Inverse folding.
């Protein structure tokens, strides 16, 4: 015997279906965060143009056995992180996105991979 469903039940079923899809599909689409460890940092000089040079902090991080050299193209006089610090990172092509304490991501350029 088939049961008739009213509009509220259909809307509720549709919401349940959408919620289920979001819960199952979102982890697949979410960016992959990894834990990185700062192994070293140093100040390096980079050139903005032919006659202007600036200093910035370069970090060496270890992510699952791979060593990355990352930096921001900003004039930095002191490091934000210290050796041994653990970071949440997401690496995409030539960029490394670091999730800072305020939950915002900072973009670093990947300068090299070992």
């Amino acid at each position: 015997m088939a049961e008739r469903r009213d509009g509220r039940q259909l809307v509720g079923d549709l919401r349940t279906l959408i919620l289920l899809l979001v819960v199952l599909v979102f982890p697949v689409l979410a960016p992959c965060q990894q834990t990185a460890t700062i192994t070293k940092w140093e100040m390096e000089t980079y050139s903005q143009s032919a006659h202007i040079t600036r200093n910035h902090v370069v970090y060496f991080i270890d992510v699952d056995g791979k060593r990355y050299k990352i930096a921001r193209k900003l004039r930095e006089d002191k490091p934000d992180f210290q050796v041994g610090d653990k970071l949440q990172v997401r690496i995409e092509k030539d960029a490394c996105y670091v999730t800072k304490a305020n939950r915002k991501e900072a973009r670093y350029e990947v300068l090299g991979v070992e």
The mean pLDDT is 83.
